[in-house]
Amino acid sequence: MDKYILGIETTCDETAASIVCNGKTILSNYITSQIDIHAKFGGVVPEVASRYHLESLPMIINDAVSNSGIDKSEISAVAIATEPGLAPSLSVGFAYASGLAVNLGVKLVHVNHLSAHVWANFLTVDHVIEIPERSLCLLVSGGHTQILLVEIKDGKYFSKILGETLDDAAGEAFDKVARLLKLPYPGGPELEKLAKSGNPKKFQLPLPMINTENYDFSFSGIKSHISRLITSQPEILESNALRADVAAAFQNNVCEVLATKLIKCAHEMQITNIYLAGGVACNGFLRNKILEKIENSGLILNFPHPILCTDNAAMIAGFAINLI
Ligand code: KG4
Ligand code: ZN
Is 19 helix (H, G, I), strand (E, B) or coil? Predict the structure, then answer.
């Protein structure tokens, strides 16, 4: 019998609800972002985020259920992202989802937000993706940067961290450098836009940990390097061209390290299928850099649609199939 799961996501500043059939087919996917609200603070304010989750949840869940094509009596389980995330946002989502599950008389499934990001690669609206038994995933979000070994055993998902950042996450570094370059929040997509017109060779920046034996990363040094560069050459902030050059050099070096280590890991582990996940996986420069580097190598890269890279509830509803 088909399993229809209602997923709810409130770990940070996106309030989202979605219905997914059998872990893979998206029937509805609704998101409301609080970007405009937090932009004036330059970042997410946890207490403000939780208040908006509470206000938005009834409407967003109603949209997800009423536009899914199924009746709410057909929902098999409610899935809620329970970790990691901002404590006030998590508790609002958990309380709401618990009440809803009791009300519907179905199980409440606790989903790890990071595993769900990886699962976003296996979601579609019109066909079913076969998941390879062994693959690698580069998870690059605002809070995490990890290379994961992903295995499907007896139809269930397992993952193991092979490498991770020792300090800032890649998305965090994008956001912090964007702020140094006086770009609006959220910085990652703005920095990618600015970098398009820049010369990545104008400023020499480090390629942190590119030659280390392990699969770990470090991105706080490159951010500090840019902070010192701007202090010593304040004219950078006066010129759009120079700001674009710094953005391009930063984006190039971060993506170069991410791509090099991911591909090295795939070769060493003899894994063919590689995936991207998390907000930074929206970055076109990163996607293209990996695609260029793996041309004729036998490696296969897949990544989710941008709407499924950043925080969403379809990934929560989808991943929950492993837990019921
Ligand atoms: O996965 P996500 O939506 O939330 C977390 O779970 O953290 O990721 C958000 C992060 C932010 O740091 C944001 O700046 C970054 O993803 N991001 C990007 C791009 N789009 C989003 N970073 C670089 N280039 C982008 N196009
Ligand atoms: Zn996320």
Answer: strand
8 Å CB contact between 84 and 12: no
Residue 14 alpha carbon to ligand 2 centre in Å = 9
Q: Residue 282's CB: how many other CB atoms inside 10 A?
A: 22
Q: For the residues 207-222, what does the mean pLDDT come to? A: 97
Q: Which of 13, 14, 121, 174 to mutate to test the pocket of ligand 1 (most atoms within 8 A of CB)?
A: 174
What's the pTM? 0.95
Instruction: State residue 100's pLDDT score.
Output: 98
**Confidence class for position 106, pLDDT limits 50, 70, 90:** very high
| Atom 13 of ligand 1, residue of closest alpha carbon | 188
Ligand 1, atom 21, lies closest to the CA of: 279
